[in-house]
Amino acid sequence: MISGVKIPTTRNGKATFNIIVETAIELFYINGYHSTTIGNITSEAGIGAGTFYLYFANKKALYTYILMEFQHDIRKRIATKVNQVEGRFEKEKEGLKTFIKYALENPHSYNIIWESLYIDRELFINYYDTFAKRYEVGLKESVEKEEMYDVDTELVSYILMGVSNFIGLKVLLKLGDNNSNVDQIVDNVMNIIRTGIFK
Which CATH superfamily is domain 62-195 in? Predict the structure, then answer.
């Protein structure tokens, strides 16, 4: 449960709640968190300020809810796909592919997630720390199964998250060349991870 957020139970309440969230996501994406006011959100959503405060104590509570929803959605999407394959290498490959496709479908997620560093540093730290800790659980299991070398799994979790984040940015922002074929990009990345880069 996120402090300052009241999840509605009625159908109409849920619909209004979702309108507020969807509107805020769009405005945070376009204008940024600091340049978006509650007035902007309520005006664009077509609701009164009083209605906003039925569900959210303030703008930061709304932003935190959105941030945590992105984290939940990304983890759930990746877990669903990863559980369909066997072996750490294939799981990493499927996870990377799923993350990139999520980023392409939800380009606003990058802006909103990374902006948390400038809204509340603790939010940013907790976002990635939580991800890393959950990631590490699977990595430790893979070390025990001898699918991986006996490595520092915490460090590896951050290395692999870094790969996902920046390959996702490369594709999403069309940085450099060859960004259209996600499957091929992921295959190339995973081949480099498997073989290494230094002679």
Answer: Tetracycline Repressor, domain 2 (1.10.357.10)
